[in-house]
Amino acid sequence: MSIFSSAVRTVIRLAAFSSFIVVSASAIPASAEDAEFRNWDDVVAAAKGSSVNWFMWGGADNINQYVSDWVGNEVKEKYGVTLNRVGINDTAEAVNIVLGEKQAGIDDKGTVDLIWINGGNFRTMKQGNLIFCNYLDLLPNNKLVNWQDPSIANDFGLPVDGCEVPWNRAQFAFAYDEKRTPQPPKSIASLIEWVKSNPGQFTYPAANDFNGSVFIRHVFYYAAGGPESLLGDFDQAKFDAVAPKAWAILNEMKPNLWREGKTYPNSITTLAQLYANQEVALYFNYDPAIFGINVENGTFPASTRSYGLENGTIANTNYVAIPYNSPRKAAAMILANELLSFSAQYTKAKADVWGATPAIDLSRLDQKSREAFNALPRNPAVISPEALARKSLPELNPKWISAIEKGWQKNVAE
């Protein structure tokens, strides 16, 4: 049954036109102190018997099953909270619901209680005062998070400031068939040369695909001599200095790409099919766990292996956030705390569940729990998250990303 009332459907229609609305600070509680949650016991008591609507990308069956079945059962049995997973195609859909409700004056009876979020969508919510903050110290499992780690404390360059709870970490990696390609290129510079020597064996999705956009950013970093000069707020002068170099590299590669660069895969799923069919020799993904999943389900050859680049690959953290107008904030905090627990992070790290890299700091666990993580079997196709993390690169401010994507479309694709 849909959780949307007719009133909320109207809000959603309004939200489609409200992406660029500037909203002012709300008088509704924006923090745990204002909402009068003094301690965890207050949160537990307020949440008992309630439900929580978690809006999240619903494109992966294994993730959906983990959330609906495993997580849902945990919060129900432990706290009496019913989890309603609301699958969406794009996080912006949930953000737009909150924006639309704000415009309609729905400040305390919102539809959305929790959002799987990061990057530009978080920036929209934080800058628009659409997010509930300053409750993290109430969560018992927050002690497992290393907030001194910049890649945790900052979401695509924007300080989290107590407004999000980390859920997963992800890092870009390449995959190859070691029987077919025993010496894959392990830097952008060597990839450029490899493409020339192996025409038709490489391609990447268009910039409107998330993974395609990330690959293009790696080339942009290479053209800039590293990401350091690109960090912080968008700088048009810096962009104008680097962009022509990046477009020249990508255009030089173009004739030697799959189908001579006359077309690009429209999604990462299409690239996976090309790799599976041996039409291309290299595949990549921001979630390396997919390499093992596709080997185990027979899509990829068992000889698939993966690696990071010598100069590092882009990594990020994704989070959950509570909208300012959620009427079920206590239940949302219960769910967020459970997602940080050892058992939740350990279960989703299992290769047959998800294989997700934990967001918690394993050094903060007791010895038995650390050993359990270390003992988890990992498909040989999947590079060790620890090895990958030794050379990680930061994500850019969303305005940089938007400029790079638009620039690629204009200067490379067309």
Automatic annotation (TrEMBL):
Q: Which residues form the signal peptide?
A: 1-27
InterPro entries from the UniProt entry: SBP, YnjB
Reply yes or no: does the keyword Signal apply. yes
Keywords noted in UniProt: Signal
| Pfam families according to UniProt | SBP_bac_8
Return the protein name: ABC transporter substrate-binding protein
Organism of derivation: Sneathiella marina
